[in-house]
């Protein structure tokens, strides 16, 4: 048995999800004629209290479409130094959108709106003007941390005062919703655009959505096509997303509990990087006798897969394909390695 804790993207469709995919009603989505895609987009827009949404093949594409909606070429995006949009999207903001980005120091979910406000550059003599701020909820490299609702409200005021757009990379916003009980529509009301992912945590095989106003989403369709993201009978994929929304959000609490079990077992070894709030367990091996690659290799030899984020940084992510027995095995394996 392999216990794969590298990411919550490694899940496989459940039997019910496969049935939904097999029986999905489909059409040509580029023509706007796929009824299942249309239903998914309408459902997601309603969940977040926005007018419209657009189905995209990946979270990176959804983020980059959203950024192009709110930041014109040669203008500036502010985000944190560990944000997915500038860390794991291969420079797409600059390559596709001509967007200049500037970052505040990586602090995960513990961002300070006053620090962000002090970084804003207005229009001026040869200065690159700031047009938008992006945050990540939950924060991947921030150990799955949840940005508090009050912090987001303060950041919304900062954006409004400076007439900036506010974007949310909400790949795991479902986890924040379950962890803190904040309604999705309350999150949605704070942002001009959001990207939300169906394949992280919710178990769908592929797909993310851009959420925003009807005007923005109409533009987003053109940007998606330009980036090669136009899909045809995509209802087969959208059906998996609709099934995930109906069946897999509430169960995220189980993944959070499993992550807490892992964290409790590993904490005595002094490698837990931060308190665990959701389904991500971050490991800081700076003071450990082995580095991240050595830990991952030793764990793999015992059938437990761990994600390496840096020389001394590793990550465990719980998800629906790892049951309690898998967590028990991971605890035994990892504590054995760290104890050696």
TrEMBL record:
SUPFAM superfamilies: PLP-dependent transferases
Family statement drawn from the similarity comment of this UniProt entry: Belongs to the threonine aldolase family.
Keywords of the record: Lyase, Pyridoxal phosphate
InterPro entries with a match to the protein in the record: ArAA_b-elim_lyase/Thr_aldolase, Low_specificity_L-TA-like, PyrdxlP-dep_Trfase, PyrdxlP-dep_Trfase_major, PyrdxlP-dep_Trfase_small
Entry-linked Pfam families: Beta_elim_lyase (PF01212)
N6-(pyridoxal phosphate)lysine found at: 200
Keyword Lyase on entry: yes
Name of the protein this chain belongs to: L-threonine aldolase
């Amino acid at each position: 048995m392999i216990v794969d804790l590298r990411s919550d993207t490694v899940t496989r469709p459940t039997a019910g999800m496969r049935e939904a995919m097999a029986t999905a009603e489909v059409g040509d989505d580029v023509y706007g004629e796929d009824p299942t895609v249309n239903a998914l987009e309408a459902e997601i827009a309603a969940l977040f209290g926005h007018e419209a949404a657009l189905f995209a093949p990946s979270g990176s594409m959804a983020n980059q479409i959203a950024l192009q909606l709110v930041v014109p070429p040669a203008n500036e995006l502010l985000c944190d130094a560990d944000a997915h949009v500038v860390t794991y999207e291969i420079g797409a903001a600059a390559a596709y959108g001509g967007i200049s980005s500037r970052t505040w120091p990586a602090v995960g979910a513990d961002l300070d709106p006053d620090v962000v406000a002090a970084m804003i550059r207005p229009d001026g003599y040869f200065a690159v003007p700031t047009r938008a701020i992006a945050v990540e909820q939950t924060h991947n490299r921030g150990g799955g941390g949840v940005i508090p609702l009050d912090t987001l409200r303060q950041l919304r005021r900062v954006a409004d005062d400076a007439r900036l757009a506010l974007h949310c990379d909400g790949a795991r916003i479902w986890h924040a919703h379950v962890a803190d009980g904040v309604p999705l529509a309350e999150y949605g009301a704070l942002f001009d655009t959001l990207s939300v992912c169906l394949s992280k945590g919710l178990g769908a095989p592929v797909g993310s959505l851009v959420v925003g106003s009807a005007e923005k989403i109409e533009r987003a369709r053109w940007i998606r096509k330009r980036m090669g993201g136009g899909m045809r009978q995509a209802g087969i994929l959208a059906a998996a997303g609709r099934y995930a929304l109906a069946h897999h959000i509430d169960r995220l609490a189980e993944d959070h509990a499993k992550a807490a079990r892992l964290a409790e077992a590993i904490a005595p070894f002094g490698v837990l990087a931060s308190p665990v709030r959701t389904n991500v367990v971050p490991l800081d091996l700076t003071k450990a006798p082995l580095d991240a690659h050595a830990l991952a290799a030793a764990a793999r030899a015992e059938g437990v897969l761990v994600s390496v984020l840096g020389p001394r940084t590793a990550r465990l992510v719980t998800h629906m394909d790892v049951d309690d027995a898998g967590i028990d095995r991971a605890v035994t394996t990892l504590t054995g390695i760290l104890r050696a």
